[in-house]
Amino acid sequence: MTATATTSRSVLRQAISGQRRQVTLASVLAAGHQGGEALVPVIIGVVIDQAVAGGSVGTLLFWLAVLGVVFAGLSYSYRFAARAAEGASLRAAHDIRIAISRRVLHPGGGAENGKLAGELVNIGTSDAQRVGVVNAVLPFGIAALAGVLVSAVALLRMSVPLGLLVLLGTPPLLYVAHLIGKPLERRSEAEQERSAHASGVATDLVSGLRVLKGIGAEPAAVARYRDTSQNSLAATLRAARAKAWHDGAVLALTGIFIAIVALVGGHLASSGAISVGDLVAAVGLAQFLLTPFLIFSWVNGELAQGRASASRVADLLNTPPKVEAGDGELPLPATGDVRFTDVSYGSLRGVDLDIPAGQLVGVVATDPATATDLLDCLGRAGDPTGGEVRVDGVDLSTVDPERVREVVLVAAHDADLFEGTLAENVHAGGNAHDEALAASAADEVAAALPDGTATAVTERGRSLSGGQRQRVALARALAAQPPVLIVHDPTTAVDTVTEARIATGLARLRQGRTTILVTTSPALLAVTDRVVVLDGGRVSAEGVHAELARDRADYRAAVLS
C-alpha cells in the first residue's frame, strides 16, 4: 500500500487479498447458508406434492428429517461465516492502519501537509474500518448471488419461464442498484472529509485549551468549532438522505421484481403448467429472494462507503515524502562536523556556517521563522532550495532521513512527552538517563513528584507544568547522546537559577560532542564556545557571547531585552 500509484481500487484489492483465505471461507459458508435457505421452500413444495398429496407418513417424516438437517446446516454455516467475515474485516482494517501509520511516521514526512492531526486519526480509524468492512460484506454478497442462482435453477426445473425471469432479471437489477449507489459514494466521501476536519479542529482546540483559556479566546474557539461541526452535520445528513434514498429505491425495485415472479408463478399454476407444490415453492422462493436482494442493497451501500474511504486512504498513502531518501552514507562513527554552504531555505538566505566537531555553538535568530527553517535543514525535515548542509563532509540531502536522525537529533521547542512514567519518557532517549536528568535539572522535577521518576505522566505531559515538561524533554534529548544535538529554546519556562544550572550541566554533559543551541537565553549563550547571529536570514555576526553583548547593540536588543 506504499506504492506511488495507489488507488482506491488497489486499496480495496489489497484489503481483500490480504485476507483471501478468511474471505474465501466466509464466502463458501455464507453461500452454503443462502443456498440452503433457497432449498427450504423447494423441499416444502416436494413435501406437499409427494407426502401430503400422496398421504404417505413415511415420506413426510423423511422430508421433515431432511428439513431438520438443512436447518442445522443453515445455523452452522451462518454463524461461522459471520465469524470468518468479521475476522477478515478486523484484520484488513488493522493492516490498513499499519500502512497509514507507516506513511505518517515515514522519516521523509509529507503526510501531515495540509491535514490536522485529528484528520489523520480519522483516516486511520474510521476510513480504515470502512475499507475493512468490505471483507465483511463481500462474502454475503457472493452468498446472495449463490442464493439467487439456486433459486433460478430450482425455478427452471419447475418452469423455464420462471427460471429465465430470475436469471435474466437479476443482472439489470444489480446494475441499477450500482448506479443508485453512486450519489451515496460521493456524499459518503464528503461526509468523511467534513467529519475528519471536525475531528482535527476539536483535537487542535483541546491541545491548546490552556492557551485559549489564558488569553480568553474560548468564545472564538467555540464559534470556530460550531461552524466546523455544523458543516460536518450537514454533510452527514446529506449522506444519510442519500443512503435512505438508495435503500428505499433498491427495496422498491426488489419488491416489484419479486411481485412479478409471484404473479408469473400464480399464472402458470392456474393454467396447470406447474403443480400446487411447485406454486408453493415458487411463492416461497419469491419471498426468499427478498433476502438476497436486501443483502445486495446492503452490500452495495457498504461498498459505496468503502470506495469513498479507500479513496481517502489512497490519497494519504500517495502523498509524496517531503524529502526523498538518497544513496549517501554518513561515516560511522560520526564525528559531528557541520557546515552550511550558501544555504537558502524558507527565510534562510545564502547562509555560510562552519561548526567544527565537538564545538558548543549558540545561534541567535532575530526571526522565529529563521530558527525553524534552520532546524528543518539540520534535521532534514526539508532540503535546501540552494546550497548544501554537510555533516562530516556528506551532503545531508543525499542521506536517508532516518539515518540522518540517528546522527543529528533536533530537540524542538514544542517537543511533547508521551503517556507513561517520567522514567520511561527519559529512557526513550537512550541509556544516559541519570546524567541527563541531572544536566537538565529534571532530577528536581522527579524529586517534587509523589513517586519520583516512576510518577505517571499524562498524555503530552499535561500533568506537568511547562517548565517541568521542558526539563524532561531536554533530559530525553540529552540521554540519546547523538553526535550532533540541536536544542531550540529549552529553558523559556524555567526560572533563572534553574536555567543557569541547566546551562552548566548541558555544557558539561555535551563536552566533546557537537551541540547547537538555538536560543536567546544569556545563560545558555554564556557557556557556548561562540555565538552566530542570524538576521534577515543571513549570518550578520559571530563571536563570543560576552564580546557580542558588549560591542553590538542589535545583539543586546535580541538577547538582553
TrEMBL record:
It is a multi-pass membrane protein. Keywords: ATP-binding, Membrane, Nucleotide-binding, Transmembrane, Transmembrane helix. Its main location: membrane. InterPro entries: ABC1_TM_dom (IPR011527), ABC1_TM_sf (IPR036640), ABC_transporter-like_ATP-bd (IPR003439), ABC_transporter-like_CS (IPR017871), P-loop_NTPase (IPR027417), Type_1_exporter (IPR039421). Residues 333-561 form the ABC transporter domain. The chain crosses the membrane at residues 23-48, 60-81, 136-156, 162-180, 248-268, 280-299. One of its GO terms (cellular component) is plasma membrane. One of its GO terms (molecular function) is ABC-type oligopeptide transporter activity. PROSITE patterns: ABC_TM1F, ABC_TRANSPORTER_1, ABC_TRANSPORTER_2. Residues 25-305 form the ABC transmembrane type-1 domain. It is found in: Cell membrane. This is Multidrug ABC transporter ATP-binding protein.
